[in-house]
Amino acid sequence: MQTTARNEEKAERDVKVNRQLLQSAIAHSPVQAGFPRSDLISIRDLSPGNVAAIFDLASLIKARPSDFRGALAGKQVVMFFEKPSLRTRLTFESGMASMGGSTMFVDQTSERLGSREKLSDVAHNVERWVDGLILRTFGHGTIEEMAEHACIPVINALSDLEHPCQALADYFTLYERFDDLHDLCLAYVGDGNNVANSLILTAASLGSRIRVATPPGYEPDAQVVADARVLASQTGAKIELMNEPCEAVIGVDAIYTDAWTSMGHEHEAAERDRIFVSYQVNDELIAGAAPHAVFMHCLPAHRGMEITDSVIDSVRSVVFDQAESRLHVQKAIMLLMLGTQTDRVNGRIPHA
Known about the structure:
It is built from 13 helices and 9 strands. It is α/β, with parallel strands linked by helices. Helix 1 runs antiparallel to helix 2 (48-63), helix 4 (119-126) packs across helix 5 and helix 6 packs across helix 13 (319-338). The N and C termini lie far apart (44 Å).
């Protein structure tokens, strides 16, 4: 009997602690932090406090998933995807279902959003039916326009400019492995694409260090870098852009790469394969990193191209940890953005 009583007391304490942590996380959510809308279009929509809140809540969700089984009960989101997906689709769908909510998937791979009717009309329809929009698109402007017109939260699940959920999951993976992200240095080697853009912004927000090595002409977006440098001046982050991969990886704690040719640029594949050949993450390149360095890739990987089997399959590879982190981080994002919404704006009535 005493054991049972102690277990019940412990359970009550755990619930209280979890509730306090959740309330703290929500207090730092975009809704509470003064943003005019609760959208995640870019990492730039998040303050350093928002990022910290997402990581804290993701840690709690990962450790105690059963505590959140009904957290989004009755909530519904629709997912419009113009690009194929494995990790993004399944982690959003699984995450929503595990918190009691539901998802509807609309395949837009054969017809882009806005081709049949104005994006504003799509937004005004969808906002009457569901609680949130998750978009995976080619043009970043598509997501911005949908967010402009929809009065429900919009989450960027990938655009040609940014991949915020991926970058947050990547740094959450590092957050779980390293004591202090301020002291961590990540080297990104390859194409200055959407993932690189979001990694730079996340590093700036966290006060971390990042080196990005790309071939000339394939650098990250200039405006993203400029915005990241402004934020870095406040957080103490250090952002370095260079062209030499061997220089970038010297002494770093993590080496990250991505596909040389992103979706939508397949016509450039042959030329890119020739230009990027010296940017392959292989045994020779990683020898310059710190002995404890981990190797990262957002997947899918083109083995033998941007990364070799010996690196991606090594014990220091965390690529599948990154994939798992997508689930926990996106659950935290959805909980912060959907769980804090009690009513629609503009006097709209929530669906039954």
